[in-house]
Amino acid sequence: MRILNLISHLSKGGAERQFSYLAPELVRMGHKVDVAYLREGPARLELSGVTMHQLVAINNYDPYLLWQLVRLIRRIKPDIIHTWILQMDILGGIAARLSGTPWIFREPNSAMAYLPTWKNRLRVWVGSGASGIVSNSSGGVEYWETQLPYSCRYVVSNGLPVHEIDRIVAALPPGLTKQEAPIVLYVGRLIAHKNLKAFLESLSCVKQQQNVLGVLCGDGPQRAELEVLRHKLGLNADVHFTGHLPAASVWALMKKASVFVSLSAYEGCPNTVMEAMVCGCPLVISDIPAHREILDESCALFVDPSNIQQTADAILQILYNADASKGRALIAKQKTQEWSIAEMARNYERAYKELI
């Protein structure tokens, strides 16, 4: 089977990382895998055995992109096209329809991620011609049940290199050497729906009772605003921004951290929470369906992400009750053994074959 993947950037986002896990695994299973993309990120993804096709465009709205995609599809004649992220869902979906090629797109979010913008409405219209929709969470399926009730829908959870993560040794990244205070960690994009202002305000409350170091690992459009808030809260010495780190460094940091916090207003299948689970890091997470889908009270502390004091109390509860915290973390880690990349690839393979 020949599978053409269409993705905007080969960078450091969650969707891109999942693609980098899936594509080489499909190659190992004997399939021919291609990817067409616009740009690479600062750290090249490992895509062993995948045939690369870099597209040329002045910007994301360049109509020349559509012509290139149609020409590529007609030249390599894939059995199925798999699109990732909104831009390629739209352009790739149109190209697939023009060429008469079976096509699926991946849904990484739930309904709360989608405001009634023209881009999202266009995605739904183009998506009506898809052979199938693969969501990584039940929330994604529920969204498309309301948008395209007669579509063919699948749920395929994200995969993780669990054994690779297990081999990583706990370590601090540069700039955090000889850190003695407990680390309260966030990993992910610095964007509004992650509720990072509430995270910093919660750390300010925690600081009144316990010395901690808040670490935000990642980058995004909200970073400058968060750095200003750090200063206003008097947390300049107590909160550290690492920027983007390689995956291995993130996993090593998760194994050093005392608490992992995710206060997202919504998620699909939350990569970083899953990684923290594999690393055995105690969790404080927002009480949202995406988190409830993979966790319960036996293995995490749930909070209202808008309740600053409740979040601070949960962080302190983990710090003051080490045995109970380690017990919950162990239960969470046991759940992760089901999330192999091989199983994810087999589920995608099954969907591809049914849709073809």
Concise synopsis of the structure shown:
By secondary structure, the protein is of the alpha/beta class. The chain is 44% helix and 18% strand.
Question: Which keywords apply here?
Answer:
356 residues; alpha/beta; Rossmann fold; 2 domains; 7-stranded parallel beta sheet; 14 helices
Write the layout of secondary structure elements.
Blueprint: E1 2-10, H1 14-28, E2 32-40, E3 51-54, H2 64-76, E4 80-84, H3 86-99, E5 103-107, H4 118-127, E6 132-135, H5 138-147, E7 153-155, H6 162-167, E8 183-187, H7 196-207, E9 213-217, H8 223-232, E10 239-243, H9 247-256, E11 259-262, H10 271-278, E12 283-286, H11 289-294, E13 301-303, H12 308-320, H13 322-335, H14 341-355
Parallel strand pairs: 1-2, 1-4, 2-3, 4-5, 5-6, 6-7, 8-9, 8-11, 9-10, 11-12, 12-13
